[in-house]
TrEMBL record:
Protein keywords: Signal
InterPro entries: Bact_solute-bd_prot1, SBP
Protein name (Swiss-Prot/TrEMBL): ABC transporter substrate-binding protein
Source lineage: Bacteria, Bacillati, Bacillota, Bacilli, Bacillales
First and last residue of the signal peptide: 1-22
Organism: Cohnella cellulosilytica
Location of the region described as Disordered in the Swiss-Prot/TrEMBL record: 31-53
Pfam families assigned: SBP_bac_1
Organism superkingdom: Bacteria
Keyword Transmembrane helix included in the entry's annotation: no
């Protein structure tokens, strides 16, 4: 999905990760190469000192969005990070710059294009391919050894790889899980403590619920109105990928596979069990229908309870891992998030990389933003790990990924998949014809 992200935020001690905003941008730079900094250290471990060569204080700019950088809940932690960085890197200091989300989305792209890039910055997942391809990002693999990347969730780390190189450090992430209605399960004669674990079970349960309720409740929710790869989390719970990219950068469509055929056929078979307006619904409206108990099962993030806080703790609400292609398939879910990038043109690459490491370290990662940290160590000390209500999310997030490797054609390919699903579901196109047309279209997109 060109990556539409669900942002997660904790509200009180109960269970709410809310869709979050983002913003930011700043300026400096010109490249001078740099030696490899130490990697994988906790922020509390002081690395070897590296003094500014000029004898004066050198400034590094970090650019993010105001909803985190300038928020009273996080600003004191950023100041703590600033002091720690100065202590570990005598002669260097950090300046925090930010803008509100609506401004930041545009401004940080303009800053890079005009040669006025910040040293370190939040990179939005959908923008990553353009930034990497444009040469805006420092190759972190040349600055850090492999141990620096070892603790990140594999599917999330892969979102910031470009031609096999680690071009950013994962900072935040998210995932979708299966939400299901226990009361409707019971009404349909299903065990409310045994949600579907495979695609075939999902289909069976949806049919039983639709029939048992006389169509008053839809068995499964579809958000086709979102106009991006629908139910992508289902497809990522398989061995499938939409494309493959070889070492030379060549792109091959991989949709003529059992996994993608079964995915399309599953959606086609589920059509009688979708809610009536599935073709126009986005995920927020779908979440509300679930809260109203009009849909028995949806695949969604925590926006369900964000938009409908009155269902927090409701006895009918169940959560489980996304159903898999079959019992032998890997667990999976769609994941998004933000990364921390270092400008390829920073004057101080060594210190900039150290700042990026500090931001993603166990000491600061979970405390400088409201989303879920993208590595095991930071997740373990985050607020999310202490609330049992997030148990399924914390288990699911480790298997989150995206349905295709990052390329410049990510958004166009994602849109092509959406068109195929729409034609199969709304236009009556056969699965085989849909796949043949999609395969051809991906070939046309990637040959441009």
């Amino acid at each position: 999905m060109g990556t539409k992200l669900s942002k997660l935020v904790l509200v009180s001690l109960v269970t709410v990760m809310i869709a979050f905003l983002a913003a930011g941008c700043g300026g400096n730079s010109a490249n001078e190469g740099g030696s490899s900094p130490s990697s994988g250290a906790s922020a509390s471990e002081t690395p070897a000192e590296s003094k500014a060569p000029s004898g004066k204080t050198e400034k590094l700019v970090y650019y993010g969005f105001s909803e985190w950088v300038a928020d009273p809940a996080f600003a004191p932690v950023f100041e703590e990070l600033k002091a720690k960085f100065a202590e570990q890197n005598p002669g260097y200091e950090v300046e925090f710059q930010s803008d509100p989300w609506g401004t930041w989305e545009t401004k940080y792209k303009v800053m890079f294009a005009s040669g006025n890039a910040p040293d370190v910055f939040i990179v939005n997942n959908p923008d990553f391919p353009t930034f990497a391809n444009s040469g805006y990002l420092l190759d972190l693999g040349t600055q850090l050894d492999e141990s620096a990347f070892a603790d990140y969730f594999p599917g999330i780390l892969s979102m910031y790889k470009w031609n096999g190189k680690n071009m950013a450090l994962p900072y935040t992430t998210d995932a979708r899980v299966l939400w299901y209605n226990k009361d409707l399960f019971t009404q349909a004669g299903l065990d409310p403590e045994k949600p579907p674990t495979t695609w075939s079970e999902l289909k069976q349960y949806a049919e039983q619920i639709t029939q048992a309720t006389g169509g008053q409740a839809a068995g499964f929710g579809m958000d086709l109105g979102l106009k991006e790869f629908p139910a992508q989390s289902l497809f990522t719970a398989s061995n499938g990928s939409i494309i493959q990219v070889d070492e030379a950068g060549g792109i091959t469509p991989t949709v003529n596979t059992p996994e993608f055929k079964d995915y399309l056929q599953l959606l086609a078979d589920l059509k009688p069990n979708f809610e009536a307006d599935y073709a126009t619904l986005d995920h927020l409206k779908l979440g509300t229908l679930f809260a109203q108990q009009k849909v028995a099962m949806v695949i969604a993030g925590t926006w369900v309870t964000d938009q409908n806080p009155d269902i927090l703790g409701a006895s009918f609400v169940g959560q489980s891992l996304v159903p898999k292609h079959d019992e032998n398939a890997p667990d999976g879910s769609f994941g998004g998030g933000f990364g921390i990038g270092v400008s390829a043109n920073t004057k101080h690459p060594e210190q900039a990389v150290k700042l990026a490491e500090l931001l993603t370290s166990v000491d600061f990662n979970a405390r400088t933003m409201s989303d879920v940290p993208a590595n095991n160590a930071s997740l373990a000390v985050s607020k999310f790990a202490t609330d049992p209500a997030y148990g399924i999310f914390m288990e699911q997030i480790k298997f989150a990924r995206q349905s295709q490797p990052k390329t410049l054609f990510y958004k166009e390919i994602d849109s092509a998949v959406y068109d195929t699903v729409s034609k199969v579901l709304l236009g009556g196109q056969s699965v085989d014809d849909g796949i043949a047309e999609l395969e051809s279209k991906i070939g046309q997109i990637t040959s441009q």
